[in-house]
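#data-curation
PF: Archiving a pair of folding outputs for the training set. Convention for this channel: one message per protein, sequence first, structure tokens after, nothing in between. First:
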Amino acid sequence: MGTLRAAVNKLRAAMNKQPEAVTTQRASVDTLQAAVNTQQASVVASLQSTILKIFSKNMGKHLVVSEIVATFAIAYEK
């Protein structure tokens, strides 16, 4: 009976540790999500800046969509 009780206690201890692991995992996910959000904001800002440069540089010119895309591709590679 003592062995069974010890096994149950071990199982309970393991179960009690699970919330800690889940909390730690959740914190890791939150940290990664924050990093992704920061990176995404940086990419969006860069794209907006590049698009503004393209359109301000070509203001007043009649551009075909393919020319805009080509200009954007060249500008984005730099």
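PF: Second:
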Amino acid sequence: MRRFLGNLALIGVGAVMASDGAAQDGQRSRGVASVTYVLEVDPARAEALGWVAKDASEAQAVESVASLVRRRFEAMERALRIQTDPATRRIELTMPQIQPRERELFAEMLRNLGVCEFLFFAEGEKDAIDLAREQEKLDAWRRANPSQPLALFHVLAASEGPHRRLLWSETLFAGTAGRPEALLLPDRPEACFGAAGFARVYASLDDFGYPCLGFKTSDARAADFEALTGANVSRRLGLVIEDRVRSAPTLMAKLIGQGLIEGRFTEQETAHFVESFQELAGPLKLLEIR
């Protein structure tokens, strides 16, 4: 009887292995695979952007950054596993199923964080989000945590923190700070766009003679950029630079291959942004994709 059960168990294991193998073969035939992104956190840069609590330890900084990164995937309802190693300041993100092109799109998204992102303003009912309720949650948190960076609000559970698709961002225009604005996080990787999608970025002047930034999209992202802007004509676009909305134009037409980022920047800011965008100098360094 024991031998029979043992043989039955082996048959069961064999069936599971065969099933797993068939599933893996099916995934490979569809181009589906797992991927792991290995990131290194720059705690000083994360602190400068307000991504960590004041007086946080390096280990706490790594955990805080990991939580903020997780939200980007939760907004797209994508499953992933996150492992952190405070000793090496590393974060490993593993996604069990991913299409080949998504591999590079998610890599771009990670490189954009804390550097430059294109995010649209949330419009409440249009986006099925109760913005009045979301504002109440933000106000309550800020009253209870007046000295903490705004980013920490985003690591809370949805019941206390923001809707999974919302990102509250500080605003700064022409050197004047404004109230935080609610931005909509992308719900698919093709809608993630920022500095990593630029083929070229350069200093320029706007129609009023103020320094601004010009950019041209990479060939790989040109169609995505055109589709993204074309689908959001008449909507306000938040140009988030170093975790602040620095420009918020209303799109009057879709953009094809290039554009200007106007925010009444100083010449020094423009030079700094050009260098930062070219180097993708954010708080996360993508070390490896495997």
